[in-house]
Every structure is written in C-alpha cells, then in structure tokens.
Amino acid sequence: MIEPVMPTYARIDVSFERGEGAYLYTADGRRYLDFGSGIAVNLLGHSHPKLVAALQQQAGKLWHTSNLYQSEGQKEMAAKLTANCFADTVFFCNSGAEALEGCIKTARKYHSANGHPERYRVITFEGAFHGRTLATMAAGGQEKILAGFGPKTDGFDQVPFGDLKATEAAIGDQTAAILIEPIQGEGGIRPAEHGFLKGLRALCDKHGLLLLMDEVQCGMGRTGKLFAHQWSDITPDVMGVAKGIGGGFPLGAFLATEEAAKGMVAGSHGTTYGGNMLAMACGNTVIDEVLSDGFLDRVNDVANRLKQGLAGIVDRYPSVVKGIRGSGLMLGLECVVPNGDLGNRLRDHQMLTVPAGDNVLRLLPPLVVTDEDIERALSTIEMACDDLAQKAGAS
Ligand code: PLP
Predict the structure, then answer these.
(1) Mean pLDDT of successive 10-residue segments in the chain (395 residues)?
(2) I want to staple 158 with a disulfide (CB 3.0 to 4.6 A). Which of 141, 184, 236, 249 is the partner?
(3) Whose CA is nearest to atom 5 of ligand 1?
(4) Using alpha carbons only, how large is the chain's radius of gyration in Å?
C-alpha cells in the first residue's frame, strides 16, 4: 500500500527535532554535526537568533498580502542584492526550479522584445542540474530524471561541461542564451574554470546571447564571495538564486540587468507567494548577515582550514578518498570507495553530508560553522576513513 507521503524520496531512517548552529538533535537526544545544511540551505545554521527573531516578529504582524500590493520587504532586499552584484532588478519566487524557469523565460522574452521570437533555445551543460519542473529537467538533460515524463520539453541543447568549442558549435539562429552553474552541485562539485566562464561571456557578446547563471547552490556567500561568478571577473545577464537566500524559509529569486529584463513588464510573469512578508523577513536577515563586516572573510578562513585538513586526510587514506573539489564551504570529497559508503559511515559517527554525482561526497556546512565544528568534522572524517581503510585492507 502506498504511504500517505508520496514515496518519491529514498529517505534515510532518521528524523530531527531541533537544531542549533551546525548541530541537529533527534528526539532521543542524539546530536549530529550537520555538514549538509539541508542541501546548502541553512546558511546561518539552525535556530540563528536573528533569523528566529525576525520571523517571529513578522509572524505577529502580517504574513502575506500577495503581489497585488507594494512590498517594502521586497524593495529593501532587492536594493541590497542589486547594490552588491551585476543586477539591476530582482523577481522573488519560492524555489530554485522556479528561479531557473524565470531565468529561461527572461531570456526568451528578451529576444522576443527585440523582434526575434524565434530565438528561444538555451545551451546547457552535461552534468547540470537546474530543477524538477518540466523545463528545468529538460535544461539539466539527465536521462534518469527525464525518464517516463513524456517528450522532453523543447528548447535545450546540451554540450560537454568546459568545452568552449562545442558550445560555440551549438550556437544557431534560434539560440537565446547559455545557462551554467559556475560550480555544478548535484553533478559533483565541478567548478567551471574561470577561463571557461570568460569564454562563455565572450561567446554571448559575440553572438548576441544572454549569459544565465544558476547560483541556486553556489550563491549567497557559500564560496566566500556573495556570488560564485564574482571570482571570475565576469558578470551574467540573468541569475537564479534560492536555497541559502532564505536561510531555510522557502525563497528564490531571479536577478537581471535592465537590458536583459526589457521584456519583463507588468503581466509577463507572476507567482502568488513569491517574496511574501515571512520570506522577506528571513531573506533580509540572511543578506544582512552575509554582507556584515568580516562575515565572508571568516567563511574564507574556515574554508581554508577545512580544505587543508581534508588534504591531509586525502594523503593519509588514498584507498578511501583521492581528492577535494570546490571552493569556500562548497566542497566535494572525491571518493575511491562508493560515496554512499563514506556518507553512511560518517552518519554512524553522527555527521551529515550529502552525496553528489561523480562519486563525490558534498560538504556544505552552515556558513557560521565554528573552528571547533571544523575540527570535529575533520576528526570524524578521519575516523570514518580509518574504518573504511581497515575494511578495505581486511577484504
Ligand atoms: N539549481 C541548482 C544548481 C540546484 O542545486 C537546485 C537544487 O538542488 C535547483 C536548481 C533546484 O532548486 P529547488 O530544489 O529549490 O527547486
């Protein structure tokens, strides 16, 4: 008999009752070190006092009025975002997939507004993940995600990640845009080379295309800059964000330059909940913290410490792990053993991580992770690797 909760997830048999900082607690008091952050969501950790206060205060005042009316919270957050990146304008929505749909729609509308409605196709990259709606799963192009859901939504052409020649060869009269995650998340923490991103920007400029960035997982300070592409000295035309932006409250957004958003006028796009008062109370608090003095410097410091410690573990346990990928607090351990084995063993030692493609295990701690949390994570990973190395040696 089917369960009342639709069984679309292969859930692990553990549940949590409360959280604090980088820790989650089960009802019977077991404490887990959370280096998954709800898949890169809880940027400020669990129960951050400022986030709790902001949400509680707003909950007592007003939750939702819809986008029929003005929103001071949206204006405030959009001003903070646009002051700190390439974008001139922001649309608030509820999730990553919805943010990416918005990016794709903005690109199509831009060309239509320019008199070229035939330019609607988007070039995407192998290994990408952009969401589970009909269009975003077509953009991701992964067979296992598309299977059984009917014809793949038209309008996406996929090329190998990092291959500039193949990208240029895929550009045709109907191409509207190129869409890329600066660091592929689900695909296995695969960073795009800075030179490749620069090359994509140049291709877009040469062929009149828009460059769309998916920063749903890597954005909002996770890599040590507000947005990951800011390490590459290039800017996109449109960008999707979500996950960390609400600190755990469902919130997404897409951001665009004034030029790229020229087709997005009243009536062209909408959503009932997007950017409601509760979401904005959380979003404004998260961005204030992330942009506060020294916050991102600290992310870079702890990230370096974590990376150095991991490098030592990679040296000591070559039969278990063979490398580290990623940047800031978006790191991937390249596994020799199946990544699920290492993830399970870490969970036995009460530490949570997230698997990814390419046999990589993701480490995505909250950005407020302390030095002590990092030390604990490293000693737990060491223990788990030791267990697995001994097991490998024994067999
Ligand atoms: N884009 C990227 C890069 C993601 O990692 C994800 C989710 O993992 C999405 C889009 C989809 O976001 P959501 O699950 O909030 O729809």
Answers:
(1) 96 97 97 98 98 98 98 98 98 98 98 98 98 98 97 98 98 98 98 98 98 98 98 98 98 98 98 98 98 98 98 98 98 98 98 98 98 98 97 76
(2) 141
(3) 217
(4) 21
